[in-house]
Amino acid sequence: MKFILTYLILLFMAALASAQPKQEIFFADVTIVVENGRYYLTGSKGGGNGPQGFALLESKDLKTWSVPAESKDSLGTILTRGDHTFGTKGFWAPQIFKEKGIYYMTYTADEQTVLAESKSLFGPYRQKEVGPIDVSEKNIDSYIFKDTDGKHYLYCVRFDKGNYLYAAEFDLKTGKIKPETLKQCFGQTEPWEATPNYKSVPIMEGPTVIKLKNKYYLFYSANHFENIDYAIGYAVADSPYGPWVKSKNNPIVHRSIVGENGSGHGDLFEGLDKQLYYVYHIHNSADKVGPRRTRIVPVVRQWDDKAGVYTFSVKGNEVIVPVMAGR
Predict the structure, then answer these.
(1) d(CA 209, CA 189)
(2) Which of 180, 233, 268, 272 has fewest C-beta within 10 Å?
(3) What is the pTM of this model?
(4) What count of other Cβ atoms lies within 10 Å of the Cβ of residue 66?
(5) Which pLDDT score is estimated for 9?
(6) What average pLDDT values come out for the chain (327 residues) when binned by 10 residues?
(7) Radius of gyration, CA atoms only, the chain
(8) Contact assessment for residue 285 and residue 296, using Cβ atoms and an 8 Å cutoff
(9) How many CB atoms lie within 10 A of CB 150?
């Protein structure tokens, strides 16, 4: 009888635990690294929990996430304010990439782009000389792209009565751009890039760049992040500097497609299943912006033989809601 009672109690506790809603992930301005059969997620942390900086989460399936066993603490911290790093506040939009065995992270702090590095994916990411990449203007949302000829390019947002995307050749050894190569990508030209639900100066941000068949594809977000119409589109060019031709199918991620407000600012990656995905954030709820929630959506890539370019769309009915394990 005692054994049966214990079994029933355990069964009840298991049922109660399974009935509890799983904790969603509140990372904004997100990116995912794929390495050694695992996915690693980082982004701007929401909710004000923990120190200023960035944390890393791990998953095998994109759905359930946890702090990696290799992490230095229970939060998965990989970069911290004041630990040989530039910035006092506003730690946003990290990107991680690997070059010759070294892991690099670009991020925003104090409205400046920053480069830090680590010998391990799990950090800590630090700077040899503490400082931003380019102090000539406020700039945010950095993305470093390596071309097939080995050259690196920094894409970022510079402030000029609005947020505009710029490209410049980047010297990875010095951590600086080549100023003479700096060029604006494009301006605000399309109706979807500025909608009346939230009036603001022109805003284009959150760049990701890939190269396919000698064409460059620049994915970006437009509208103010507090706008319910915050959305993602892309443009195509024959060089890293453009000129860029925006897709007629833009936006490819928008609340009308994925069903949630404020869908934007993320990164494109190839999954372990060879499927393309885009990771992004959404508003917290229908009437509240933050803390923003993380989402992942499968991407469809199709070759347009007539135009000689790839076209991109997403499977808006297959959005993944990543959650924390054991919650």
Answers:
(1) 20
(2) 180
(3) 0.93
(4) 15
(5) 42
(6) 45 45 92 98 77 94 97 95 97 97 98 98 97 96 98 97 97 96 98 97 98 98 98 98 98 98 98 98 97 98 97 98 87
(7) 20
(8) no
(9) 6
Query: Could you give the dihedral angle defined by the CA atoms of residues 280, 283, 285 and 286, in that order, rounded to the nearest 10 degrees?
Result: -110
Q: Are strands 77-80 and 53-55 parallel, antiparallel or unpaired?
A: antiparallel
SS3 55: strand
* Best CA proximity match to 138, nearest among 171, 113, 167, 170: 113
Q: Are 128 and 144 in contact (CB under 8 A)?
A: no
Residue 324: partners with Cβ closer than 8 Å, 6 or more residues away: 22, 23, 24, 25, 57, 64, 65, 66
**Which tokens in the block code for residue 96?**
């991680």
Query: What's the DSSP call for residue 23?
Result: P
What stretch of H or E contains 278?
Answer: strand 276-282
Q: Could you give the CA distance from residue 94 to residue 108 in angstroms, rounded to a whole number?
A: 7
How confident is the model at residue 171, as a pLDDT? 97
Query: Rounded distance, CA 222 to CA 250, Å?
Result: 11
> Residue 144 — left, alpha, or beta (φ > 0 → left; ψ -120 to 50 → alpha)?
beta
**CB within 8 Å of 200: residues ≥ 6 apart:** 194, 223, 224, 227
Whole-angstrom distance, CA of residue 51 vs CA of residue 13: 34
Domains identified in the chain and CATH numbers: 25-324 (2.115.10.20)
The number of helix segments (H) and strand segments (E) in the chain equals: 2, 23
Give the SS3 label for residue 181: helix
| Cβ-contact 101, 90 below 8 angstroms | no
Phi, psi of 65 (to 5 degrees): -125, 155
